[in-house]
């Protein structure tokens, strides 16, 4: 049986664009997760998500692993991008869409 830390590392490693959030993209359970998911969805690429409300072990361990205390958390290409404020700020400046589109394109290239 794998540990929570191994699960987190696997999730981050296997998903080019990954959002740890409260709730789901269709039904966010907090305002910060709602803002973050709207910004990520507006970039137009598919992304994975983990509902931390259904995964209390991940909710407890991820902040230690990431050295980031709050949710949501956006990970792109195995790197923590940040939380809601950073995600929204990057979206408004156009940086988020470029980052996400570049990540999605490189993931497609790797599959070929």
Automatic annotation (TrEMBL):
GO cellular component, as recorded: cytoplasm
InterPro entries: Glutaredoxin, GRX_PICOT-like, Monothiol_GRX, Monothiol_GRX-rel, Thioredoxin-like_sf
NCBIfam families from the UniProt entry: Grx4 family monothiol glutaredoxin
Domain Glutaredoxin: 17-81
KW Nucleotide-binding (keyword) present: no
Keywords for the protein's UniProt record, in alphabetical order: 2Fe-2S, Cytoplasm, Iron, Iron-sulfur, Metal-binding, Redox-active center
Protein name per its UniProtKB record: Glutaredoxin
Gene3D superfamilies reported in the protein's UniProt record: Glutaredoxin (3.40.30.10)
Residues reported in the UniProt entry to bind [2Fe-2S] cluster: 30
One GO MF term: disulfide oxidoreductase activity
Sequence positions that bind glutathione: 22, 59, 71, 84-85
């Amino acid at each position: 049986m794998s540990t929570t830390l191994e699960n987190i590392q696997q999730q981050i490693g296997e998903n080019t664009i990954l959002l740890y959030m409260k709730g789901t993209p269709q039904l966010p359970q907090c305002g910060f997760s709602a803002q973050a998911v709207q910004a990520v969805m507006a970039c137009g690429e598919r992304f994975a998500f983990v509902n931390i409300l259904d995964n209390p072990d991940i909710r407890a361990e991820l902040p230690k692993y990431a050295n980031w205390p709050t949710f949501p958390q956006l990970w792109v290409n195995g790197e923590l991008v940040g939380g809601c404020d950073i995600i929204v700020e990057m979206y408004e400046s156009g940086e988020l869409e470029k980052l996400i589109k570049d990540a999605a394109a490189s993931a497609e290239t790797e599959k070929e």
